[in-house]
Specification:
- The chain is an alpha+beta fold.
- It contains six helices and 16 strands.
- The strands form four sheets. Strands 1-2-5-9-8-7-6 form a seven-stranded mixed sheet.
- It starts with 25 loop residues before the first helix and ends in a 20-residue tail after the last strand.
Amino acid sequence: MDAPQPADGQDPITPQSPAARVGLNRNELGSEDFLAANGIAQLTVVDSTGSTNADLLQGVTVDPRAWPDLSVLTAEHQTAARGRLDRHWEAPPLSSVSVSIVLRPVNAEGRPLPTHSYSWFSLLAALALREALLETAGIPAEIKWPNDVMVRGRKIAGILAQLGPMGDGTVPPVILGTGLNVTLTAEELPVPTATSVLLENARTVDRTALLKSYLSRFAALYRNFCNADGDPAAGMAGGPSLHKRVESVMSTLGKQVRAQLPGDHEIIGHASRLDEYGSLLVVDAGKHEHVVTAGDVVHLRPWTPPGTGTDTGTGTAESGYA
């Protein structure tokens, strides 16, 4: 694959030096045609903030009506992004896609989705981002359960879903945050097991193009899922179900894994499949099947028996949302 090409007048883009970092194209992102075509209620770009997820959680709490379904907030720079397990991460300005979306899931008739279906939103977002990376940047990505997007075993993006307030009688909102490493160099990565779009020799490192592609694919998948009443086994747009589509691109399945749970309880076994709630089913040496939920997992890694090799540690790589 050809190396990413700079715009006219810019220095060559190489994995050894930062790509020319420019701001998001706010005219493209705010275009009425783009927003209407994807059912996006509003899209706000800010120069800097602590966390887009935290901002939207506050917004839907203080003024719920100001943040309808598919309201989008994206920042050029996050200074206090938080991921799963309270991990914190800050990337250089203009180097990542940091975006959060308000979800108020109802079907075509306005009927709220059952809240147990909310557990699929992180996986739905990971699937949308995987498709955007492949089709826009030419990067072959996979999903690592429960909320990471990986390229050749290294983490390029993380996703965090948080439940908003439920006390005002409206549909309980979900704030869905995604952080994608775009132009980070090897020296700027938070850990050696992370990667970026730039480092994967992508067709483009245009953050606007990547963000638009992700939002378009997410909105389509999300609307299909809502109109199926949150049923992950229902076909989507005439194709395979969300459940099957996620399983087909999930790198975790088929591997020996170790999951550490609260109370120092550990499960080592074969990651076999996802259940109807998106939880991971792990079969241990005694053939007992355990349900591992995203809320319970401390870390989940390929497991190597002592004395036969080293743990890959892929569970520790981070991006904007871990």
